[in-house]
Each structure stands twice: as C-alpha cells, then as structure tokens.
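[step 3/7] inverse_fold.run input=structure_tokens len=386
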C-alpha cells in the first residue's frame, strides 16, 4: 500500500500545484484572475467527465498497468510545464493532466477497495483520503517554497522527478485484478444511480466540494489583498489547514462511533463548514488562516465519511460507484474553481462568501435527507428481519 499512497500524494500534488502561484501568474502573463484560475478548472473538467468515457478508451486493464502508464505520461507533462512559454499552451498541458489524473485516482480508489476487507473499508478509505489531503497540501506548500527560492517552473520539474520514482515503484506491486471503471455499462450506472441514498450523497458531495474548491482557488487572491507581504511561500503555508484534514480523516471511524454514525457526522461536518466560512469573512489574515483549519477539517471529515459510507452501502459495481463519486466530486470542483470568481469580482469577498454559504446550506439539507433515508432503510430492514 505504500506505493499506492505515495502515488496518491503525487497525483493530488499535480492537481493543485498551481494554486499558490495564481496571483503571480496573473501578473506575469497579464491576465485576469478568473483566467489564471482556469489552470485549476481545466484540470477538473476531465476529472468530472472521464469516468463516463474511459471504458471506450481503455477497456478493462490491470490496475498496475493503467497506473504506470498514467504516471509516466503525467511525468512527461510536468516536464513540458517547465519549458512551455505561452499561457495558452500551459492550459493545453493542464487539460492533458486532467485526462491522466482521473485514470490514476479512480483506479487507486478501486484498488484500495478491492484489497480491503469490508469491515476495514472505512479505515482504508480514511488512509486513502489522508494521502489525498497530504498531496493537496504538499503540492501547494512546496510549489510556493520552490517558486520563492528559484522560479515557479521548477515546481513542476521537481514533481516530474517524483512521478518517475512512483513509476518505478508501481512496477513492484502485485495486481489486484482489473479495474473496470472505464467501461461501466449504462445498466450498471443506472443501477447505482437508482438508489436514492446514492443520488443524494453524490449531490451533497458535488455541492460541498464546489464551495471548497472555490475557497482554495481564490484564497491566494484574498491573501494578496489583505497583506502586501503575501509571496508564494507565505501563500503556500496558508494551506496548512489541510493538515487538520489528515487528523480528522484518520480518526473518522472513532468520530462516527462517538457521535452516532456516519450520517450525523456528515451533517455536523457541513455545519462547521458554514461556521468556517463565516470566520473567513473577517478582514484579517489570521482569521483567514484560522478559518482554513476549521474549513479543511469539516470538509475532509465529510469527504472521508462519504467515501467509506458509499463503499459500505453498495457492495457491487465498486468501480462504477467510485468512478461516479470522482465525477460528482470534481464536477463540483470544476464549477467552484471558476464561476464564484465572478461573484468575487462583482460583489467583493463578502459576496463571494455569501454564495459559498448558500451552496453549503444546500449540501447540508441533502445530508439531512440522506440521514432520513438511511433511517427509513434501517426500519425496513429490521421489519424484514422480524
């Protein structure tokens, strides 16, 4: 599992590496901040669509083979980010990366679920989520540090070397069967989506990650507004709240047991998400950074809970379940990393936060509905048992 977790960290680092650099890329290339933000958005778009089309492209392929191919190609694209000059070409490369990362993430999730016993599923998914969180933080923090010491392009070069290490390491792991994400037939997709609990969970995930992605993408611009000393390194460190996400993800099972189950934990996580957004309306760097800890803890607790919950609830078609989860999750990210920027431009930071609170409240209502559906299902199962 060490190779899987290491690869997961690098995949998420690749996805989020440009974020601390966005204000400086906006200045260097003379573009609007919404345009600069597209470096993240354009990578999210394939992440949300790929699970629906990978079957036609990949058929059924072993997990190790698909991972190694995607990792090697991603390493090549990181090298291209180091040498390509026009911003338009950077966008093209980021689109290619967005096509490769979902192949990695969906197969990594499915591999984890395949090699894990059902009773340990929640714990295994918590470790997987912790690796994604560490990757998101490491990509941002290290890119900010390297950019402040050398140049922003060296961040991509270093990540490319790390991906080559992962490519060699993945060659040493055993296969755990084929990954069938890519060809989830319509019947299997329809069967998964026919479950009202699954549909509700996916809609909730879409909404809360929309708000989370928006905050992560526009946080650097807010920091540069509040502090003239906000360079790449300091912006990268502002994402330290991600570390709180690791803590809550690894303790997700204990939290579920203490607070009465996964449904209650998801409701509670989204309540704290709203509180974090309110804290971040205070026009001080300390409030912004402090709010990040609360926001990341709430978001990743909900995320870790939702993934484990769905994999326990659905025992079949795990490739389809996880592929659709990735699609809804990053579909929200694609919308959130771009469109809320117009609220920021037109109505300022307060208007931006208001939009995000509305979206998270919708997610909260969906979490409450999920809790009620789960209660009805348990009642029906108990009646059948009697």
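[step 3/7] decode complete -> sequence:
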């Amino acid at each position: 599992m060490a190779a899987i977790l290491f690869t997961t960290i690098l995949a998420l680092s690749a996805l989020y590496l440009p974020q601390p650099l966005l204000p400086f890329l906006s200045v260097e290339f003379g573009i609007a901040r919404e345009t600069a933000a597209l470096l993240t958005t354009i990578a999210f778009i394939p992440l949300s669509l790929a699970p629906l089309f990978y079957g036609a492209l990949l058929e059924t392929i072993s997990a190790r083979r698909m991972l190694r191919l995607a990792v090697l190609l991603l390493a090549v694209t990181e090298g291209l980010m180091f040498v390509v000059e026009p911003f338009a070409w950077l966008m093209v490369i980021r689109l290619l990366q967005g096509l490769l990362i979902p192949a990695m993430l969906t197969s990594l999730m499915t591999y984890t679920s395949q090699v894990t016993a059902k009773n340990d599923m929640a714990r295994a998914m918590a470790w997987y989520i912790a690796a994604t969180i560490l990757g998101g933080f490491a990509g941002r923090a290290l890119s900010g540090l390297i950019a402040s010491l050398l140049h922003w392009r060296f961040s991509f070069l270093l990540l490319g070397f790390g991906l080559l290490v992962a490519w060699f390491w993945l060659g040493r792991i055993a296969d755990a069967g084929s990954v069938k994400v890519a060809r989830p037939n319509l019947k299997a997709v329809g069967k998964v989506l026919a479950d009202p609990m699954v549909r509700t969970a996916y809609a909730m995930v879409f909404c809360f990650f929309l708000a989370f992605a928006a905050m992560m993408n526009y946080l650097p611009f807010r920091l540069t507004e509040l502090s003239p000393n906000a360079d790449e390194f300091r912006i990268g460190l502002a994402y330290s709240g991600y570390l709180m996400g690791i803590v809550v993800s690894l303790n997700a099972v204990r939290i579920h047991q203490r607070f009465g189950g996964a449904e209650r934990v998801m409701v509670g996580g989204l309540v704290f998400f709203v509180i974090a957004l309110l804290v971040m309306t205070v026009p001080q760097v300390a409030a912004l950074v402090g709010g990040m800890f609360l926001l990341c803890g709430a978001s990743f607790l909900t995320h870790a809970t939702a993934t484990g919950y769905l994999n326990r609830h659905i025992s079949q078609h795990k490739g389809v379940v996880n592929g659709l989860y990735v699609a809804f999750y990053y579909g929200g990210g694609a919308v959130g990393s771009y469109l809320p920027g117009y609220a920021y431009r037109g109505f300022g930071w307060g208007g931006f936060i208001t939009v995000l609170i509305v979206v998270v409240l919708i997610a909260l209502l969906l979490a409450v509905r999920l809790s009620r559906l789960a209660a009805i299902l348990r009642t029906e199962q108990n009646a059948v048992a009697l």
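[step 4/7] annotate
Confidence is low (pLDDT under 50) at residues 55-59.
The two ends are 42 Å apart (CA to CA).
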